[in-house]
């Protein structure tokens, strides 16, 4: 039987814009490390990685693969996906793929700066070739975050942020987080922060806790090197699970005195996950992305934790 390497498929967007990064051969291997990470497992199971370091799975394919697909794979319904929906879906997952490229196992396959510059060129080409498409509000939010996570085009990210602001209307916490995280200088961060405050209430869902908007602001301050300013934002509140792992040990211990048991458990879990992600190559900015309440990764991590708790409670019974 023939052997086939498993690659991420190279899809196409309107006007031939490529969806995924690719090597000259047309794809890159979805090997065990990437698979564990992409499935939402932040620890990237070391047993698998040690046993099969950077090795792609080899899967068997019968001689007549096309015939088997025709016979066994159900045909998709005759439904056309609109370009806006296709591009929106691509943009929503593009930041996750950019994060995955910084892992230890994928960094050896790509020049990270070249990959980031390449995706920015593709985003600009999309805007040039589909001007009527990129004016949709959701597409503009996606473009802002895609440029932001690329890290090499802050002016493009802020250009879309200005358009989003000019539209008016309510903003979600997710858009606010992405706008703050798309800044690359303290001056730009303070400008976006001032623009957000009258638009989104800063009251926390849990009385006495730091609001998520303040958490996003403090996280970005730390990323940009303003640790003392971030601590000033957090110091009058109990330790927040989404900020605790970024604080120095002494500062975290001081704030932990007023932290309840449930929050303390969440703090410990996020800190453990952050350490594992760092060990696998991610920097602070990437870890914030993975652990974010608005992240696809975080949703998967949360579901894994819920299943673990259900099994643990069942065993305890």
Describe the structure.
A two-stranded antiparallel sheet has the order 1-2. Helix content is 58%, strand content 3%. The protein is mostly helical and 317 residues long. It is globular, with a radius of gyration of 22 Å. It has a domain at 81-168. It has 16 helices and two strands. The termini are far apart. It has helices spanning 32-38, 46-51, 65-72, 83-100, 104-107, 112-129, 137-150, 154-167, 173-181, 186-196, 212-223, 227-234, 249-255, 261-279, 284-291, 296-316, and strands spanning 2-5, 58-61.
Major pleated sheet: 2 strands, antiparallel
Terminus-to-terminus distance: 49 Å
Radius of gyration: 22 Å
Helix content percent band: 55-70%
Compact overview of the structure:
This protein is mostly helical and 317 residues long.
